[in-house]
Amino acid sequence: MDSKDEAPQKLTFRFLRGTETDAGELEWPDGADVVRKALAESLNAKNVAFLLGAGCSSYYIKETDDLLGDEWREVGIPTMAPLAKEFTKARTTDEAGFPTAAERQVLTDEFGIEIGDKEHSRNLERLMELLFSLRFALSRSTHAKAKDNLKTVNSIIQKVQAFLWDKCTNGASANGDNTVRALYETFYRKLVLRDRSLPRPWVFTTNYDLFNETAMDRLGLPYANGFSGVVERRFNPATFRYALAEQLDLTNRKWSAVDGFVYLCKVHGSISWTEDNHGLFPIREMAVSKGQEPGKIMIYPTPAKQNSSLGSPYADLFREFQSRIVREQSVLFTMGYAFGDEHINNIIYQALTIPTFRLVIFVDPTLDGEVAKLRALNDPRIWIIGGSGPEADRKAHYFDTIIEEFMPQRPSERIDDAIRKVLEAMSPRKAEAPSADGHSA
Q1: Residue 185 φ/ψ, nearest 5 degrees
Q2: What is d(CA 194, CA 176) in angstroms, rounded to the nearest whole number?
Q3: Does the bond joining 303 to the residue before it have cis omega, within 30 degrees of 0?
Q4: Domains identified in the chain, total number
Q5: Range of the domain at 86
Q6: Could you tell me if 247 and 355 lie in one domain?
Q7: E strands in 123-231
Q8: What backbone phi and psi angles, to 5 degrees, belong to 82?
Q9: Domain with 296 in it: what CATH number?
Q10: pTM
Q11: Same domain flag for 255 and 310
Q12: Are strands 262-266 and 223-224 parallel, antiparallel or unpaired?
């Protein structure tokens, strides 16, 4: 059979719902309708929360070069794996902003730690967890070399933070590319369709970037992120208890919740947070601009460090996460999160002890580790959605596909789609002439 006569390969994805007997395999594009209807029901649950991981802020575009062929370029912020690979790779000469050969040697000789080993070169969080643990121990050690070794560890920690700052503030998105920001804006446009009579949604994220805040600011959506004030915005967990309402009747003091209000919790900190000596509220939110020095930024990408994630503001933020998802009739949607954070995973497992809790995971269903464990539970309350996307270069569990294909449409989008289908049905289809390579032109 000639190649141009072969039927195109069917693209499918998985929609796993625990004890269902079938494999949960659905075909594009009809399968998207099945997921969209199921998600619409879940989004109307009493308590809704989202967990956005690093995958949501990463986005690659394909660029074709006549000489080099197809290449993929990151226009967002890379996930932890490529970041770790770049930071920990061995260099023939010392480069500014990266661990020097002397610093690497100290870690090897004094602690038996190779900064470029398999674990650290795949996950920058594991390296940071180790460095913070070392700093904690050395700061309390009376060993003769402790002071010098502590200086080395602190230097590497500062370099990791400066490296992450640079990736969050000087990438393609900071130089005019709006691809990722537009995705976040679409996400929040669809999120605010939630019935105003229901509690406002919560968005938790492990990311340090400002895509969430920028998207909501551009859309004019009010949100609470734990900070209060104008000139000096400082972290005060009491603000998470506040709600935004509009006055409907001046005489009778009638109030109604404002549409579109969102609670945002950045559980690993943010590039816009810094710390100073201000008594009860030492954490301050600052404006971030391109080319700015990172300063004392509050980013701690580790799940188990006793001297940071269990202190304020991290204890307050994790407490909010736990409090929200263990409530009756709660649904947690995870996007761009591969369950690599033990601290977060433990809270999610606790929530699964609540009979009315539902967990909707957008992830590659073939992953090992925690994803495989969740699949093995065969729990009908755990939904796993992922696999091939509607096009060869896309995936069903990628942030753009979730937003464009699975999240319920706004009324205006449904009308636009209906009109488009009517026009397509009314207009005669033109025969597409095959090109020289056998594909339609």
Answers
A1: -65, -40
A2: 31
A3: no
A4: 2
A5: 78-170
A6: yes
A7: 202-205, 223-224, 227-228
A8: -65, -30
A9: 3.40.50.1220
A10: 0.85
A11: yes
A12: parallel
